[in-house]
Amino acid sequence: MTRSEERLAAAYVFVALVALFGGVTTGLFQALEYAGVEVYPKLDPVIRSHYHSLTYHGVLNVLVWTTFFICGLLPFLAARSFGQPLASIRLAWGTFWLMVAGLVVTAIPLAANAATVMFTFYPPLKAHWAFYLGLTAVVVGTWLVTLNLALTWRVWRAQNREARTPLAAFMSLVTFAMWSIASAGLAAEMLFLVIPWSLGLTAGADPLLARTLFWFSGHPIVYFWLLPAYISWETLVPRQAGGRLFSDPLARTSFILFLVLSTPLGFHHQYTDPGIHQGWKLVHAFLTFAVFFPSLLTFFTVVASLESGARARGGKGWITWFGKLPWGDPSLAAQVLAMILFAGGGIGGLINASFNMNLIVHNTAYIVGHLHLTVGTAVTLTFMGITYWLVPYLAGRPLWSRGLALAQVWLWFGGMVIFSPTLHELGLRGMPRRTAIGHAAYLQSDWKALLPLVGVGGVILFISAMLYFVNLVLTATVGRGPAPAMLAFAEATSGPEYAPAFLDRWRPWIALAVALIVVAYAPTVLRLATMTSFAVPGMRVW
Ligand code: HEM
Ligand SMILES: [Cu+2]
Fold first, then answer.
1. Treating both helix axes as pointing N-terminal to C-terminal, what angle do 402-428 and 365-373 enclose, rounded to 10 degrees?
2. Which of 229, 242, 290, 329 has the fewest other C-beta atoms within 10 Å?
3. In this structure, which residues have their CB less than 5 angstroms from ion ligand 2?
4. Among 160, 128, 28, 7, which Cα is nearest to 458's?
5. Is 24 in the pocket of ligand 1 (CB under 6 A)?
6. Domain 3-530 carries which CATH code?
């Protein structure tokens, strides 16, 4: 690991944190709007409407915070795990600057209220072309990260013919390989549909084809966010808990299953879309339940590993060992609390994925409740936990305040315990999502009774986030004390020597993943692509 690689990770994490700052600030505005406190008129022209805020919120949180954090963290962990530098540090920096340039190009129309199309940018809503172009550059950047990781693996493999790929590096490679396949949908949507259309080169777009290509990438993107959290939970957290990873081969197996199963299931976001045969929707429904299997493997592995740590620390009983985890460590506490809330997200996800029950929750506030448990907590709180060791390490200074960090972590948990179930319930009472609910003429009294709780939960989450930023800024600037050492990877109870060699081969798994995608998607995408007349004109409804 070179100094330049550490600086690279720091640069990515810095951009990610700036994005998260904007993300939680807009989140506060939205929660207040739900609670009946109208802040947008005071924020004009910075934020013009709930929809402007929501576009910022979605783009900054789920596209920028996650992507930049992951592109910073995974190459860093992979290089550590290989015990050798990245194949090309120049390529890595070039990638970083390409992604930053893309971000700036996206941000200009976004800030100017010329791209208030939300992070899903479904046509016929039409943004300024720069919005799409910039996001495309960010996606291309993620491919270059994949390339660099693959080249690094080749160098390593040439020197280590027989050994298993070290676990954290293996998992990072799987994550980026999966995403590079999955992001093809997004790239196709950008290049063939929305960029020519927004430039005025084609007369119209095709909303159904666009949505289909978007969700081709839009479901696997959630695994692109989650797998890095799993990497931390399986390769680092067991040691932080004082234990061992339960099984290295099991962790590898679950990741291979994610590689194969993450993509061919996007229709579960389109159950209500006309023009896709319900037989194919059902296939995607089954495949969605199939990908729940590696999630359960992960759940088992992670809990068994935590338990080994707690028992080594004197934990007893079937459940009570849980109390013996080192709860005084904010990095561990953040990630374990993230896991707990993620269990709720997983259960809710099964409801979303069900062909019939989806109709009850579709496009309601229930979904918002769900996604704040998953990406908003399982991923975000885990990443926060990671920064509690990573930022001190990169800054060469100890964490400014452990107590503040612990308070922050529990406040996020507590805020989310109020915020998310309330939104789930509001959704079940029929309240739509993506709506400036304070302005809705149809506001129901049984929604009104709960809406203040969204505001309370949102304010607590916002306070938690501010404590987080204060602590990190003070850590990086005035933290005093000895420079912390890098966290070591966990050892495994059954180690890599038990992993069969075929798990360490790329071609068969990638071929299987692509084959499954072709089966699940080709008939529908080909039909839509050949039938489309690109006739739907763009709209600016804001
Ligand atoms: C202070 C913390 C946060 C608060 C108060 C908050 C609040 C909200 C609210 C009220 C909405 C619903 C708006 C609507 O549908 O009309 C929303 C949507 C959303 N939030 Fe958050 N949020 C927070 C943090 C996060 C984080 C950390 C993430 C992810 C990393 C996230 C991801 C999302 C996404 C993806 C949506 C849906 C966007 C869309 O429909 O286009 N939020 N948030
Ligand atoms: Cu999905």
1. 150
2. 290
3. 219
4. 28
5. yes
6. 1.20.210.10
- Residue 15 CA: distances (Å) to CA of 56, 258, 321, 497: 15, 28, 38, 38
Q: Could you give phi then psi for residue 436, rounded to 5 degrees?
A: -75, 85
Q: Judge if pTM exceeds 0.90.
A: yes
Taking only Cα atoms into account, the Rg of the chain, rounded to an integer number of angstroms, comes to: 23
Residue 177's contacts (CB-CB under 8 Å, 6 or more residues apart) are 146, 150, 259, 506, 510
Cα separation of 450 and 434, whole Å?
17
Output the pLDDT for position 533.
Answer: 85
List CB contacts of 455: < 8 A, sequence separation 6 or more: 31, 32, 34, 35, 36, 37
Name the band, by pLDDT with cuts 50, 70 and 90, for residue 3. Answer: confident
Give the angle subtended at the CA of 25 by the CAs of 22 and 30, to the nearest 5°: 120
Phi and psi at 34, nearest 5°, equal -60, -40
Inter-residue contact 240 to 489 (CB < 8 Å): no
Q: Closest ligand 1 atom to the C-alpha of 454?
A: 10
The Cα–Cα gap between 156 and 79 comes to 10
Residue written as token pair 């990497």? 231
DSSP structural state of residue 82: H
CA neighbor of 405 nearest in space, from 386, 425, 432, 431: 386
In this prediction, residue 2 carries a pLDDT of 77
Q: Scanning the structure block, which residue is given the tokens 């990877």? A: 489
Ligand 2 centre distance from Cα of residue 435 (Å): 21
Q: E strands, 87-209, where?
A: none
Q: Tokens at residue 240, please?
A: 């932080």
The atom number, within ligand 1, closest to the CA of 365 reads 15
Q: Is 434 in the pocket of ligand 1 (CB under 6 A)?
A: yes
Q: Is the CB of 284 under 6 A from ligand 1?
A: no
C-beta 368 within 6 A of ligand 1: yes
Ligand closest in space to the Cα of 455: 1
Closest residue by Cα to residue 370 from 358, 384, 355: 358
| C-beta of residue 226 within 8 angstroms of C-beta of residue 374 | yes
Distance 266 CA to ligand 2 centre (A): 6
Residue-level pLDDT at 1: 63
Mean pLDDT of 205-225: 97
Euclidean distance between CA atoms 332 and 74, whole angstroms: 19
